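Cont'd.
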Amino acid sequence: MGVKERHDREREAVARGILDAARELFVTHGYQHVSIRKIAERIEYSPAAIYGYFPSKDDIFFALAEEGFRLLFTTGSPVSEGTDPIEDLRRLFWHYYEFSKTHPEYFALMFLDRSVPRISRDWDRFGFVGEMKHDMVVRIQDATERGALPRGTPPHTVFRVLLTAVHGAATLRLCDRLAPGEDGDALARVTLETAIQGLRAGAALNCSLSPCIDPDNEE
Amino acid sequence: MGVKERHDREREAVARGILDAARELFVTHGYQHVSIRKIAERIEYSPAAIYGYFPSKDDIFFALAEEGFRLLFTTGSPVSEGTDPIEDLRRLFWHYYEFSKTHPEYFALMFLDRSVPRISRDWDRFGFVGEMKHDMVVRIQDATERGALPRGTPPHTVFRVLLTAVHGAATLRLCDRLAPGEDGDALARVTLETAIQGLRAGAALNCSLSPCIDPDNEE
DNA sequence: TTAATATCCTAAACGGTGTTCAGAACTAGT
DNA sequence: ACTAGTTCTGAACACCGTTTAGGATATTAA
């Protein structure tokens, strides 16, 4: 009676094969230059066969984006809460920028690509995105209490602002929009440092952000 | 003997027609969904005819990007230097964010699209980009001297940092990567405010950026 | 006026894309 | 052995950017 089980296993194996092939092609050549036909060739199936496993090309990369988020969060700082709370804060967001350099294709897929906008509509489909955000907010809260930021600074606002700052630098670099000789790392560093210093000066006290949808925090 | 002149005029008219058609399609449907064939159909020429005027599709949008830069700079603040130098600073960069909202397709072409990377390699081909940057740096310098920022703050660094900050907010919104209920305007506002306050706190004094290639300033 | 020349445009094709669909082939249960 | 169901393929559809050969047209020269 384990026939169905075997079938399911085989199905899943093929689906994994498709994703593996897609990832290999995609991390080296980028989303745009990976075609269904090339994926099919690599797994030695016909192009049409893929549509028995994924309803569209976008869905394949939707699944790959999920991998990307997992990668971003698992390679995060290993809870190395040092003595300097500001340094903790810095590291937390510098990791985001570093990720955009070490995994540019994943980053583009997750945060840049406009042909896969379903990602943003289904943020919460990635349960761990919410978890991870909550985790970062907790760390920010902790760093704040340890004196990194003025007492009462809303951690959610800190999260959004610092992420936006490094995101700006990351995308300018990734999209090749820096000035000819400009140092992307330096730009990211200065921008992040400026934002942190702005928060230390109490910028988030004067104008903060409503925490929009945050199901983890019902107070 | 005015034959050649008429010919040239006619050629230019057709080239303009191509750009007009391309722009109309592109501001409503976006770069990705505008094809040579659709442009051709609109101007009632065959697709191949276009290649007599532009060597590739990218070159058409390269020309359109130029329009975008002109649009961004000409719609800029009309030298309205008020009494509040910080407000001047704010307005200078808020305009960039507003542009990303009013002309999202132009913005994407100019600052986001990775399929037209020649833009960044040829920044200086757009003479007025350099001019405009110089213009903004001068205004920043002026605002600094009027007390917006600490004395000695390098205006070039201010330019890069504030642009990066609003760029982050603009791209997050444009790429549909905000949290489900998040207010993009609020995020942009807070991020910009935070960055300005960081600079006021002297962030650019501690760590600044080398002005990379800046042919206007030989000192 | 006619012949030569240069220009412009088109039809067709090339090789690519995502996706669909009829049917072949194989498997599982009766 | 036969039916039912699943899975894969080959071929096609409708696109895409781009190239090429050649026809039409307009200008110039004889």
